[in-house]
Amino acid sequence: MKTEILKVDKKKPELKKISYAAGIIKEGGLVAFPTETVYGLGADALNATAVRKIFKAKKRPADDPIIVHVYSINQVQELSEKIPTNAKKLMEKFWPGPLTLILKKSKIVPKEVTSGLDTVAIRMPSHPIARALIKSAGKPIAAPSANLFGKPSPTKAEHVKDDLNGRIDVILDGGYTNIGVESTVLDLTSKIPTLLRPGGINLEDLKKVLGKVLVHPAAKAEKKKIEVMKSPGMMYRHYAPNADVILVEFGKNRNANIKGIIAEYRAKDIKVGVISTTKNKGNYGANIVKFLGNKPEKIAKKLFGTFRELDKMGAEIIVVEGIETSGLGLAVMNRLRKASCRIIKV
Hints:
Layout: E1 4-7, H1 15-26, E2 31-34, E3 39-44, H2 48-58, E4 68-69, H3 73-79, H4 85-94, E5 99-104, H5 111-114, E6 119-123, H6 128-137, E7 141-142, H7 157-164, E8 170-173, E9 184-187, E10 194-197, H8 203-210, E11 214-215, E12 244-248, H9 254-266, E13 272-276, E14 288-291, H10 296-312, E15 317-321, H11 329-339, E16 342-344
Parallel strand pairs: 1-8, 2-8, 4-6, 5-9, 10-11, 12-15, 12-16, 13-14, 13-15
Antiparallel strand pairs: 2-3, 3-7, 4-7, 5-6, 9-10
């Protein structure tokens, strides 16, 4: 298969290019496209055969459900048995935007999308290219991140090409994504709304609308057995570069720990990269240092791309400075914990 790459104006998507890509979706093909979070790999959500192609292209386990992207509330009504009051409040406040809601599914949703569950994950993206594609296709689009399973999510078209070239039909190149980490996933089928994955909408903002929100251990990436996955990114190691990631969590002894770790690996002639999140970006004696900024929004936007960059630069170990978990920091730390093979708490 030859993968086409079409550059699309992210502010005013060209109708001809969007219609072409939508035609591929209608015919059961795969199209990668930018959203405000990361690039997604899209297929007709109501076509079971097309959805199976997503799993094959990504090498994704069949028990990992896929988020369905919609253009309108009418599509939500088709996909779900009922839209609860809480969902309506959240849609009014945060949609279009980086919030995924888990609802009871309707009969038209294929089991391939939901991994056999009776629930479906739905979101309405705000990115102009994503919205134009869904509207032109005239049907909801199932779309996980457009990368090989377990690898860092793509935040530009080049990342998609690196992972999926020759495995999918088209990549719509809309430049860099804005947020850089995936959507927040909130389960509304539980007695109390439950955060399954932190993302572009902060927990604090959800609580302002809903009052009480439970936080699933998976949202913090705590090491606890998960019986059922209702959301992507709950069970398996995710977002990981080829290099082994060591996360040194936020604390007063963090810098000393980082220096010790780097010295240990450098003594063995192992190439070490550091992802720095502090104002005082010291190199700690590492081979490579990448400073992402000291605000969660900047860190989130650059994180996955930096993982990929360090891989290309030959880093064998990547040591990352952890940050506090308030606001978007919870989403950043979720991704770092999931990507890490070793976590040091200080």
